[in-house]
Amino acid sequence: MRSVSQPTETVWSLEGPKMTTGRGFRGLIPQWGGAARGAAAAVTAGIVAMVLAAGCTTDESPAGQNAPVQKGDQAASAPDQALQPFYSQKPAWAGCGDGFQCAKVKVPLDYAKPSGEQIEISAIRLPATGKRLGSLLINPGGPGGSGIQYARAARSIVSDDVRSRFDIVGFDPRGVGESSPVRCLSTRELDAYVALDASPDHPQEIADQQKLSRGFADGCEAQSGRLLPYVGTVNAARDMDVLRAVVGDSGLTYLGKSYGTYLGAIYANLFPKNVRALVLDGAVDPAVSSIKANEVQAEGFEVALKAFAEDCLSGPNCPFAGRTVDGVLGEISDLMTQADRQPLRNGLGDGRVINESIVVLGIAAPLYDHNAWPRLRLALGQALKGDGTDLLRMADILVDRQPDGTYSNQTESNMAINCVDHAFPKGAEAYEKAADAAAKVAPHFGSFVMWGSFPCSYWPVKPTGDDKPVTAEGAPPILVVGTVRDPATPYAWAKGLASELKSGLLLGYDGDGHTAYRTGSTCVDAAVDDYLIALKTPKNGTVCPEAG
């Protein structure tokens, strides 16, 4: 989503971790900070394999047994000699509150020049509470989501059984948060970008898109030019392999949500002999092109909006009572059109304009989490009366705008990583055509998602990604988890990734919201826990029923 991000409680609030994903949504991120699973990606936490060998088999031992994580480097593929100092470093872990330990890990800025400039990756861990198997590295999504903030919710985002057996290790990928963050725009400039017209249909609106999108790219080059060529997911995956070695594991155990599934898949492709177990929840399909991914993601949000409409009409406090589902969708379209012509009232008193873009972001944020739908009902009820304040608050969650008006670097890092990971078309004409096509399959979100990638049209560095299938040949079983009505990462992507991976196994969840693990399904939770702890895999293609 404009560049848009995941566990669980029955009450949705504006506090908590979040997750995100998206190549196009302008805001983004899930990955940790708000209770919305998206953040865009927000996690409502507490509220939002590669080698054990070529002949690895499923462990059918009882849950009380376990598959230990090997120590040392006997099983892991040996790093290049020039990289050995990074793999053998001993970071100084120090207490950083609430039982957590924090450290800085050094990695090369450019892996092709390991003796050159170095950067630091910030990491955090929560020690295991029981008989330790090893470390579980986690990533909430994005790109741009802070794994450090996400890990702070470790007591909610994984089960007690997993907490007992693993140190939970979060990290901010390069370019994100506390790890050499990409910076591009001032707070005022970010406010303007986030509110940029989402469906330009006039020459002046197109010109505004060009001006602000070019300004975004130029700002990134001016403030973070030395970092931009090196913030892609391939380098983040290499950093993750250094982290694996630094925490003492020869096989990586990993939980990635949303964009974190893409990071995990790239890791598996690079280091198939260094994995123990990978859970890829809310999967991104690496083989889908940038423009097609935007279109499919927009369609996923459209499916989620329809599910919300059905749920609203069947429950209490629905502002659309008496309408049909199509009637609800039509009224939401009218609301967006009205906000495009005449902004809604802003009760926060900060002078920001609540236009169509803010309305779309405010609707998208709670679609990440079914528990947030009651809040969306209330917000839409207010908006129909001309008050967009609550939609603005939820939009702020999605783009990680803080109460003091400042932003994390989520939006900036999301754009920087996406633009180097994927090839995007050049010029406004190509985007107009793509936005029109997307709007046909996703009338509420298509144009918005598509134009959210427009800064990549002006990006100062060439993309390094190739949008090809990831096979990870030689890896042990990799568990891909998909939610049938996931708005941000459509179920088709989970099926695609599972089929492309040579050892991929698909676990489906017939539910709503973004990601499935620790969102209420005991079926999903048990399958993931058994896999992480004992390497016991579910039958490929298993679909867990909707929780509740």
UniProtKB/TrEMBL annotation:
Residues 443-544 form the Peptidase S33 tripeptidyl aminopeptidase-like C-terminal domain. It holds the Pfam family Abhydrolase_4. Keywords: Hydrolase, Signal. SUPFAM superfamilies: alpha/beta-Hydrolases. Residues 136-333 form the AB hydrolase-1 domain. One of its GO terms (molecular function) is hydrolase activity. The keyword ATP-binding does not apply. PANTHER family: 2-SUCCINYL-6-HYDROXY-2,4-CYCLOHEXADIENE-1-CARBOXYLATE SYNTHASE, TRIPEPTIDYL AMINOPEPTIDASE. Belongs to the peptidase S33 family. This is Proteinase. It comes from Planotetraspora thailandica.
